[in-house]
Here is the input.
Amino acid sequence: MAGGYMGRSLMVDLSSGKVEEFCPEEKLLRDFIGGYGVGVRLLYQWQKPGTDPLGTDNIIGFATGPLTGSPALVGSRYTVVAKSPLTGAWGDANSGGSFGPRLKFAGFDAAYFRGISEKPVYLLLDAGKAELKDASELWGTDAVETEDRLKTEYGKGAEVACIGPAGERASLISAIINNHGRAAARCGLGAVMGSKRLKAVVARGNMEVPVADKARASEIRAKYRKDMSGHLFDSFSKLGTCGSVAANAMRGDSPIKNWSGVGIRDFPEAEAISDVSVIKYQLKKYACYRCPIACGGLMEVPGGPYAVKTGAKKPEYETLASLGSLCLNHNVESIIKMNDMCSRYGFDTISAGVTIAFAMECYEKGLITSKDTDGLELTWGNDAAMVALLGKMGRGEGFGAVLADGVKAASQRIGKGSEQYAMHSQGQELAMHDPRLLPSYGTTYQAGAAPGRHTDGGGYLQENYHGVRGLEVPAHDPHDYRGKAPIHRTMASFNHVINSAGVCLFSTMTMNANSVPEFLGAVTGWDYNLDSVIEAGDKIATMRVAYNARDGHNVAHWKLPRRALVGPSEGPLAGVEVDNETQVREYMELMGWDYRTGKPTRERLLQYGLEDVAADLWP
Amino acid sequence: MAIELRLFAHLPDISRSRQRRAHVPYEEGLTVRDLLETEGIAGEDLAIMVNGMHSSVDVPLNDGDSVFLLPAIAGGSSPKQ
Here is the structure.
């Protein structure tokens, strides 16, 4: 077995209670790295097309990568994989903190679950042993308290990934929470846990992650630790992601007023929810496992209507934008409160904010009134109404139940033409970056197998003009929509390997890209270079598309809302019209994905050694 | 009248004025580059907005203009108008 892998993975059948151990073959690990790369290959083999995401046949996996818990810098991540109940397509969600490394230290690379348990359970992974335990007394408990109670039982060294009440009720925008607020949030995978009555996974142990060349790994860590510098490192380290909220609102990266507004005109108060306005509530910094950046923070709002207990997590940029700029809410204490509520209920903060913004626009347009909203006046920027509404969503009561499955379901329930205000791609709420400023987000939002995401990588890393050091791509005018596919392919495929290896995305913003193959080589003992890493990313991207294509999905048909592509009449995005069709078509053609059917071509699948997939898709 | 200058995110920490907002006396031919040099941040990777629109360092400013300086972390290219 190569270094970086514990060599043991689990399949837990929740219907029977049977726990089986397996180890993916070496070629699969080498080709697909880990995380969602290995996850999508396995789920494709294990599942049939047409699987009900909330049914007994869906499989949910908690998967690490070879760099998770290794000497690699920022190797803190794990990925949850399953068919998404939010999109009906491939789903994955990624989280940091210390759960991923602890899963490895407990002796396992991954734990997968199928079936449905009769009663609530959690899986205890304890120094190489695995046991299903009764979670009946934890059911109904919020995610922060669930973690506290399990840590009381198993000690502070134990780490917990769990769902809150939103996931228990199978809310389609529910998240999986670890470390009191780190979230594997996207794709509604908390609902898959809830549907299986799986409350938590607990990992405990201090087993060593094998490293092929320890001396080399230490040397590389020291080299790239020195390399971590510059204004992005300083900004992330000092402020975290909240540093960019006001700037992004002003220049047109953050969507404003449910994507209908202009920051400088409609949200001049943006600085009230940005950088120092947030940091003043931070008691101390918080770092994921062995991370020198430490972008997180522990907060306190000591009193007032939005008081939160000491230790609540600092809201990220995405949260401040979705529950702030998008809703014209400039009350920062209310956002810290709602961030903590989302951690406790187990909601994706992006999806929650987008859904509330949608409801506010429906209210403004008269599609709903206070009679529909249980008396709440959902006017723009009404922070008190937002907090009350989020509480209703978390409890699944009244108008909150209308919104608790995200913006697509809410628009279907409200009707009256409200779909035009529902900002999603294939059901998933769009992240807080605007393709009208950074057009390659349009490609990622539409053509990512798990759509609507800001973490799948792509040409926007270059359009964001800091690029990725060491990853050479040609200069290209972002608003020249032809000829961008090679840039998008390089950066998206590189990104897929980062995610699958268990490394934080901030590695791309603070380190040279060569750190990835160098760490992979030293830890696994296999040879990697930038080209082979990008080729592995190509395979992972193609496998995710194949998973969807077998279910009849064609990303060419996953259209984005007009507002995400066509600029308003004034402001910095005026006059922009993103030709997303060209961007997506050229990217698909370069990747070997047939634009007409959405399937990877037979030739490309055979080139990747995926004969079984080729036979399925091209019988 | 004067030029309104606003510095975002961590820029006040690395600028000479240490201010988030400042008013700079207007002079004929003044450009954003002059403001950057005065603030000691000419080498930074920045996006520039003048009166709410994307701009560049060498465009001459007019009296009363509003200049936003945004660090690269904010991201973004200038859309074609």
Q: What stands out?
A: Residues 31 and 60 of chain B are 5 Å apart (CA to CA). The first strand of chain B starts at residue 2 and ends at 7.
